[in-house]
Amino acid sequence: FSGFDMHPDVNMGIWEAYTSSCIQTELEKADGKVMAEFVHLYPPGIPLLIPGEVINQQMIKLIAYYIKNGYTVQGIQENKIKVVNQEIIRR
């Protein structure tokens, strides 16, 4: 993960994203989508992504790496994450 940028772009505020209409999408198809929930590496509960941040390919690869290697990643169920409904963003 050399050259990894831990500063994702932010598309909207945390509360706005957290309370927006959301959909579930497969992790691998989430590139460019805006997070609707927190994704934590647990323990100790370090947020990898927060609502309003734009998920990118680097973060997808990192999360997949953690899952593959037996880490507990909260905010992902059955390889799906909650993202803001794109129709909300286009308005």
Written overview of the protein:
It is a single chain. The chain has 91 residues and is an alpha+beta fold. Helices cover 25% and strands 23% of the residues. It is built from three helices and five strands. The protein has a three-stranded antiparallel β-sheet, with helices on one face. Strands 1-5 form a two-stranded antiparallel sheet. The protein is globular and about 35 Å long. The mean pLDDT is 88.
Gist?
The chain has helices at 14-19, 57-68, 86-90; strands at residues 22-26, 39-42, 46-49, 72-74, 80-84. With 91 residues, the protein is α+β, with helices and mostly antiparallel strands. It is globular, with a radius of gyration of 12 Å.
Secondary-structure blueprint:
Layout: H1 14-19, E1 22-26, E2 39-42, E3 46-49, H2 57-68, E4 72-74, E5 80-84, H3 86-90
Structural class: alpha+beta
Name the strands of the widest sheet in spatial order: 3-2-4
Order of helices and strands: HEEEHEEH
Shape: globular
- Would you identify the regions where 5 or more consecutive residues have pLDDT less than 50? none
Determine the number of helices (DSSP H or I, runs of at least 4 residues): 3
Q: What is the terminal-to-terminal distance? A: 36 Å
Percent helix: 25-40%
Q: What fraction strand?
A: 15-25%
Radius of gyration from the alpha-carbon trace, in angstroms = 12 Å
Number of strands: 5
**Arithmetic mean pLDDT:** 88
Largest sheet: 3 strands, antiparallel
